[in-house]
């Protein structure tokens, strides 16, 4: 069963031939995948976050002009939203490239790790302006670092414009920053004229979620004061090329705004950090990446993803130790996981999420989607719209979050449609063995042989309990 | 194959029947005698100081600044509740309910959770305990297990209007899930074969038979045209997605043998930046919620009279506006109890005030009422669960949260 576990649990579901490829040395097959960056398996050129943001800035300008014009003519609503129009094609291209990559990749363990980290550092497109940027975070900040140091990935993510915009850090201003002081003087004048004073200050959203969701975990030993201090430390972490008080910096790229940064040394988690501009926050992130709570939190999530919904503490300890001892070198943590016998228990299986299910089905059927709508409709039906987990906590990783009866009926519907489109003509029993190997049960093979059509047999295969688990 | 097998026949014919626990029952005529409960969970932490503005508090306007809602009568002012509190101007339906004596507004409430993580906060809100971890079932599921039985089979007494079951409804008692989008018919023959394929796998087998049963109920609800023809037309803002969800809830609850309890979730309340005041992002969300509740009432029709709708969120937000015209995670917040079964027209708030010394940790509205007090009262007075079960099974460790009196009409 080792090849099956390597391809199905660690990988993204077997493509025909993959079980044979992994069979000689399943652990070696996995280990060979976790070195260095993990590029998309497709060669479609995608726009960078920088290009997209520059286009968004122009679109926002256009929308404001349209709003002004609409207000003049008394129209309350805009029929056309240029910001959405600027975002949407990028979102669709990213979603398609991601699905194609998942369907085609010959390093599916590495690809699964990309998805794991992308979900760990989740941004969500239900914040509308993120629509075209969410995928760039995965491609620009996650893929280069999946086989590297956690600290590098962490810094790349927290300085990525998509994360900064998602958690509102670009407008967070230190109370004693130059920008705030200058504003205070202006406010004093306004107040003297009887105008309402405006207020500048921090926004603690990014700081809190870095601690709670990206590094230490919610019980990682930080206080509200630590959250507030950390928020001050990363004031100024922003995106270049804005307007007004956000002018300056290269448009669309991370930009440290010294004039918004809360100056001075700060004490965070009991340690003093000297004033060092942008580097003050980077020093904190480096330390967070080495904090034992971070190792424990990351290890728990990895083990939950690869071993069981209730992660066995012994495996968590082993992975956390490998993470800590290597200074957060991710391949060491992955290796500890691969070398844990608990991960190779053929009976302990995870219920597939919609993504797991669809990608494994695409691989089993060698069906590479050609249109963004195919992918989007699939995931809208199944309740996992790409890059839209709805919260910075990402998608849940346990069966109880995905096992509703309504959800199951939708999988049946999706399987029926996918099976109807299947044209490769490989006999269903052969498909079952190619995708499930020894997991294919005799009763399933019998049911496939008795199906009323080959398309019905394919639907039954996709909905079989052994295919629905990994 | 599809032509001859109806779902009902499929159930009778298939192996799903043999597993026993999920035997479909003849659908009961909805006698209309029993109480209905809808729980609406607002995920992301609604700003209670915007939804229920304490315009009469001397510190409110200074703290909430441009996010503050003005006093009633001013432009964009609150809808008046009493001399201290109003409702956000987007909540016109709730205000009608208040005037009709069908809404209780709570302020300065919270679960026992005192940190500021959304996810832990929602866990505590839903697990009914004092800590976010250590309980994998929800209080409403535990309540189902001790609810007095009437005719309805247990598996149909509660529905989550979503694809999957949220924590509040997870647990040993069977519940169903049904999302609002109607799924086109799935091939009956395939379902029958799947039931056979699942016959040695209880986990899949239970879910499939539940799914088939729920589909049937939803079909029946739609066919019986459960939405009254004279339902009030929607007004104002485009209906939020929540609207489709409340409609599905109402349809199912009105159908014969339909559930008595429904859980609805709505996201998008985490307003860290550019929250807006009377108008703006939060105002639009609230308008969507208000529309959804209005249509729920319309769609429930005569059932509204025996319905209580509980609207809750994981915690409130900071008393002061933050640096980005929003609010950060706080503690005390608001809740609503609406419906024909509610003895309303009241604000229940032991108001601690917003003065510097009254704030919790120098930043949040201090909660003075445990949400579990409200939950317990609703379960006892509306769903007739005995007090002993409430304390021992549904909300263990809740002695400090005493039930309230007279929230519901007798």
Unreliable spans of chain B: 1-32, 225-240
E-strand count of chain A: 4
- Tell me the radius of gyration of chain B: 22 Å
The SSE order of chain B reads: HEHHEEHEHHEEHHHEHEEEEHH
The CATH topology of chain B comes to Alkaline Phosphatase, subunit A
Major β-sheet strand ordering of chain A:
1-2
What is the subunit organization of this protein?
Answer: heterodimer
Main β-sheet description of chain A: 2 strands, antiparallel
The assigned structural class of chain B equals: alpha/beta
| Annotation field: number of helices of chain B | 12
Please summarize the sheet with the most strands of chain B: 9 strands, mixed
| Helical percentage of chain A | 55-70%
User: How many domain units of chain B?
Assistant: 1
> Which whole number gives the mean pLDDT of chain A?
94
Number of helices of chain A: 23
- Distance linking N and C termini of chain A: 12 Å
Main interface pair? A-B, 50 and 59 residues
Please provide the count of β strands of chain B: 11
Keywords:
heterodimer, A: 470 residues, mainly alpha, two-stranded antiparallel sheet, 4 strands, B: 410 residues, alpha/beta, Alkaline Phosphatase, subunit A, 9-stranded mixed sheet, 12 helices, 11 strands, 12% strand, globular, disordered N terminus
């Amino acid at each position: 069963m080792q090849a099956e576990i390597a391809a199905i649990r660690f990988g993204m579901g077997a493509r025909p031939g993959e079980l044979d490829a992994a069979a000689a040395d399943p652990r070696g097959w996995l280990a060979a995948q976790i070195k260095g960056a993990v590029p998309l398996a497709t060669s479609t050129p995608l726009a960078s976050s920088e290009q997209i943001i520059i286009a968004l800035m122009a679109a926002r300008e256009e929308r404001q002009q349209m709003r002004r014009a609409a207000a003049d003519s008394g129209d309350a609503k805009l029929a056309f939203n240029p910001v959405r129009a600027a975002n949407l094609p990028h979102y669709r291209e990213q979603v398609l490239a991601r699905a194609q990559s998942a369907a085609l990749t010959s390093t599916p363990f590495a690809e699964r790790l990309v998805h794991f980290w992308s979900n760990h550092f989740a941004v969500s497109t239900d914040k509308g302006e993120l629509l075209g940027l969410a995928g760039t975070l995965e491609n620009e900040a996650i893929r280069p670092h999946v086989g590297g140091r956690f600290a590098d990935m962490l810094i790349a993510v927290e300085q990525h414009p998509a994360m900064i915009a998602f958690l509102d850090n670009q407008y967070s201003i230190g109370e004693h920053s130059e920008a705030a002081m200058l504003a205070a003087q202006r406010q004093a004048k306004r107040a003297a004229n009887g105008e309402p004073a405006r207020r500048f200050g921090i926004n603690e959203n990014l700081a809190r979620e870095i601690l709670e969701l990206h590094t230490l975990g919610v019980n990682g030993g930080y206080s509200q004061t630590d959250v507030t201090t950390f928020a001050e430390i990363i004031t100024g972490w922003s995106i270049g090329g804005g307007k007004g008080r956000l002018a300056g910096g290269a448009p669309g790229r991370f930009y440290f705004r010294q004039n918004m940064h809360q100056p001075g040394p700060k004490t965070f988690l009991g340690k003093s950090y000297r004033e060092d501009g942008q580097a003050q926050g980077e020093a904190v992130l480096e330390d967070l990446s080495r904090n034992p709570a971070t190792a424990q939190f990351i290890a728990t999530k990895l083990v939950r993803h690869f071993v069981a919904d209730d992660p066995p503490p012994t495996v968590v300890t082993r992975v956390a130790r490998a993470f800590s001892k290597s200074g957060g070198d991710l391949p060491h943590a992955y290796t500890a996981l691969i070398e844990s016998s608990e991960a190779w228990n053929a009976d302990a299986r995870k219920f597939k999420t919609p993504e797991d299910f669809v990608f494994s089905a695409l691989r089993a059927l060698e069906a590479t989607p050609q249109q963004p709508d195919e992918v989007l409709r699939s995931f809208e039906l199944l309740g996992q719209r790409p890059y839209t987990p709805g919260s910075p906590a990402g998608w849940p990783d346990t069966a109880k979050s995905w096992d509703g009866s309504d959800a199951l009926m939708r999988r049946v519907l999706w399987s029926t449609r996918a099976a109807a489109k299947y044209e490769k003509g490989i006999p269903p029993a052969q498909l079952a063995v190619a995708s499930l190997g020894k997991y294919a049960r005799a009763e399933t093979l019998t049911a496939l042989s008795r199906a009323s059509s080959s398309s019905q047999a394919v639907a039954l295969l996709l909905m079989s309990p052994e295919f629905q688990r990994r | 194959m599809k032509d001859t097998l109806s779902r009902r026949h499929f159930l009778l014919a298939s192996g799903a029947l043999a597993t026993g626990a999920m035997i479909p029952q003849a659908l009961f005529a909805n006698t209309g005698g029993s109480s209905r409960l809808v729980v609406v969970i607002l995920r992301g932490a609604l700003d209670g100081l915007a939804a229920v503005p304490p315009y009469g508090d001397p510190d409110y306007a200074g703290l909430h600044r441009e996010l503050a809602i003005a006093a009633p009568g001013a432009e964009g002012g609150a809808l008046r509740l009493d001399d201290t509190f109003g409702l956000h101007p987007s909540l016109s339906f709730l205000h009608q309910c208040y005037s009709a004596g069908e809404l209780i507004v709570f302020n300065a409430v919270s679960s026992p959770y005192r940190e500021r993580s959304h996810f832990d906060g929602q866990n505590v809100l839903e697990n009914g305990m004092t800590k976010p971890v250590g309980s994998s079932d929800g209080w409403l599921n535990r309540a189902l297990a001790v609810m007095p039985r009437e005719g309805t089979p247990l598996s149909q007494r509660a529905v989550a209007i979503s694809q999957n079951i949220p924590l509040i409804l997870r647990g040993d008692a069977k519940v169903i899930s049904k999302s609002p989008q109607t799924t086109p018919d799935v091939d009956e023959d395939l379902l029958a074969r799947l039931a056979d394929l699942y016959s040695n796998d209880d986990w899949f087998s239970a879910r499939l038979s539940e799914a088939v049963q729920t589909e049937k109920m939803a079909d029946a609800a739609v066919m019986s045209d459960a939405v009254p023809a004279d339902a009030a037309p929607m007004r104002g803002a485009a209906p939020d997605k929540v609207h489709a969800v409340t409609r599905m809830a109402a349809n199912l609850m009105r159908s014969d043998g339909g559930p008595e309890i429904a859980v609805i979730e709505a996201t998008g309340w985490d307003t860290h930046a550019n929250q807006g005041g009377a108008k703006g992002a939060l105002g639009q969300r609230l308008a969507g919620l208000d529309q959804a509740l209005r249509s729920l009432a319309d769609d429930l029709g005569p059932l509204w009279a025996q319905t209580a709708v509980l609207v809750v969120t994981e915690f409130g937000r900071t008393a002061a506006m933050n640096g980005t015209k929003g609010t950060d995670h706080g503690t005390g917040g608001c809740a609503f109890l609406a419906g024909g079964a509610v003895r309303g027209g009241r604000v229940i708030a032991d108001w601690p005030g917003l003065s510097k010394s009254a704030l919790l940790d120098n930043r949040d509205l201090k909660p003075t009422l445990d949400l579990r007090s409200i939950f317990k009262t609703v379960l006892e007075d509306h769903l007739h669960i005995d007090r002993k079960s409430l304390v021992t099974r549904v909300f263990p460790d809740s002695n400090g949260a005493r039930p309230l009196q007279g929230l519901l009409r007798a």
